[in-house]
Design goal:
The structure is a homodimer of 333-residue chains. Chain A has ten helices and twelve strands. The first copy, chain A, is α+β, with helices and mostly antiparallel strands and 333 residues long. Chain A has two domains: 4-146, 2-Layer Sandwich (60s Ribosomal Protein L30, Chain: A); 160-328, PurM-like C-terminal domain (Phosphoribosyl-aminoimidazole Synthetase, Chain A, domain 2, Alpha-Beta Complex), CATH 3.90.650.10. The longest helix of chain A has 18 residues, at 66-83. The interface between A and B is large, with 79 and 79 residues.
Chain lengths: 333, 333
């Protein structure tokens, strides 16, 4: 019996999707990116995606609140729409509910949903609630709109690589949660970044409305290196990133220092930051920086696209270069 | 602790959706029908829905094949689109996978997906596969298009009530499966009707393209009576159905007879037939019958809409009338 583990998540998706023969004549992009893309009217595309969270795999009820879980379940899905340069419009939520989940828990979960829906002006348009005695799960399907669509495919050698926000906060926050180190302002912020990530919808909107030639984009859910590999594979290019340029928060730096945690693995491979990772030719950088400065949101150049296909390397502070392995990011199986 | 069971599925949906404050300005129909509805361009609406199937709640691996499960998981969702008079276009599939599910099982499941996608010209556009150690689940989100949208709301006293196909086959098939009575041509057909239901997309298309004034529509997933109650509540009317008019297959009649199974409870409350239940004024009946005859598909008048709100009654063969209870259909919790 061939096990799913042997194929891995992406191998499995590739394996299974090859069995599907029907493709809509108007389909722009099917399986394999953050969203599927379809034209709905001239100049406007629909972007659609779905994500599931399973208890004790993607969240633990002992370390989160129902409100935070509700917020995160939606934010993670909205991030997929942002990753395509889209604006989320509506969602469908499925709840698989064991008997132990109470109505008051669901009330709080929905308060979390409601917060995110209000914040992003997204309508929870429907869903399904089913009995699921052995596990609690949440599935979110999200539909968004995009005039311009940014995919993983299109990065060119010489393009520069950017990320929004900071890296590693979420995975460090998870470490602190697991160690029950919840005290102190820094720890609290890092844990909050893990439990309550921000979908970069605003940043995606800036890029989409600008004239900047974004050649590829993805959201960082599996870690910088693994998600950069997704871009490199789809674009048939390589990438070089610079240790010195990886953006991190002061809280991250202080906590790594205090607890003697090596920061680099978290910056490179820590998952669930939900920052945007994107590429553009050098002549767009001025415009990019101006727009992000104006909106008061952070963006940092972390590297450049290279010719060598499917190779991501790290230029270290000491002048040496190291090839980074794809497999060290978060594996879902 | 208030339990979900106390509210029931529909009470829960009502309770939770009242907490959601954001409504899109262009939203035509939100939570509470088979699908949510949005305009995408002049004269065209989008209809969206989602459905989850959980192992040992909605299916058992001991009584179905992976291919049939794949077909049914999609058909059930396509039926929601049909219920609104829509044409399904694309789906997103989430799989929650325990380790015991093998790649070859998934290959067969996808063969089932592929069959339905080809049959209905629906594209499986994306999805999510997640590890779910304790339970196997499938979530399907489906997006369709509809020029005319048929909702549950709009039935008027005096309208006539119709169903497509036959009733009770699926629930009788399930009974036979549970009793392991798989032999014989009749049993095989009934079991097949349970494991491999047909989404009435063709019939919905006939209605949508016709000029018939369909005043309300739903698909029968929870049983004729319960789904008729959904129409009555949304439309603020009542209904009378006639025992003698309830359509059943010859296989159903023979098997009930042979096994001494009372047919009426199955016809009234048996779930998962996925037939369409709809209403129209009497002056549309000729046109309706002509169109369905031409397409060689079955449609039967089973009753009429009455003034008395929220009361569904059954005119019995012996001339008496009985009020039918809403709660006898399939309850999801």
């Amino acid at each position: 019996m061939r096990k799913i583990k042997e194929l891995g998540e992406f191998g499995l998706i590739h394996h299974l999707s090859s069995r599907l023969k029907f493709r809509a004549s108007d389909s722009i992009l099917g399986i394999g990116d953050d969203c599927a893309v379809y034209p709905v009217k001239p100049g406007m595309n629909e972007v659609i995606s779905t994500d599931a969270l399973v208890e004790n795999i993607h969240f633990k009820l002992s370390t989160t609140t129902p409100e935070a879980l509700g917020r995160k379940a939606l934010s993670v899905s909205l991030s997929d729409i942002a990753a395509m340069g889209g604006t989320p419009k509506r969602i469908l939520v499925t709840l698989g509910l064991p008997e132990r989940i109470s109505v008051s828990f669901l009330d709080k979960l929905y308060s979390g949903f409601n917060e995110i829906c209000n914040q992003y002006k997204v309508e929870l348009a429907g869903g399904d609630t089913v009995s699921s005695p052995k596990c609690f799960f949440i599935n979110v399907a999200v539909i968004g709109e995009a005039k311009r669509v940014f995919t993983r495919k299109g990065a060119k050698p010489g393009d520069l690589i950017f990320v929004t926000g900071t890296l590693g906060d979420s995975s460090l926050g998870l470490k602190l949660l697991d160690k029950k180190k919840k005290g102190g302002k820094d720890n609290k912020l890092l844990i909050e970044r893990h439990l309550n990530p921000t979908a970069r919808v605003q940043e995606a909107g800036i890029l989409a409305r600008s004239s900047i030639n974004i050649t590829s984009m993805i959201d960082i859910s599996d870690g910088l290196v693994q998600d950069l590999y997704h871009i490199c594979k789809a674009s048939k290019v390589g990438a070089r990133i610079f240790q010195d340029k990886l953006p991190h928060s002061p809280e991250f730096a202080r906590t790594c220092d205090k607890d003697s945690i090596p920061p680099l693995p978290l910056l490179l491979n820590g998952g669930e930051d939900y920052e945007l990772l994107f590429t553009l030719p050098a002549d767009g950088v001025k415009n990019l920086n101006r727009q992000f400065l104006k909106a008061k949101v952070l963006v940092t150049q972390v590297g450049e696209i290279t010719l060598k296909p499917r190779k991501v390397s790290l230029a270290m502070r000491d002048g040496t270069t190291e090839t980074l392995s794809e497999s060290e990011g978060f594996n879902h199986f």
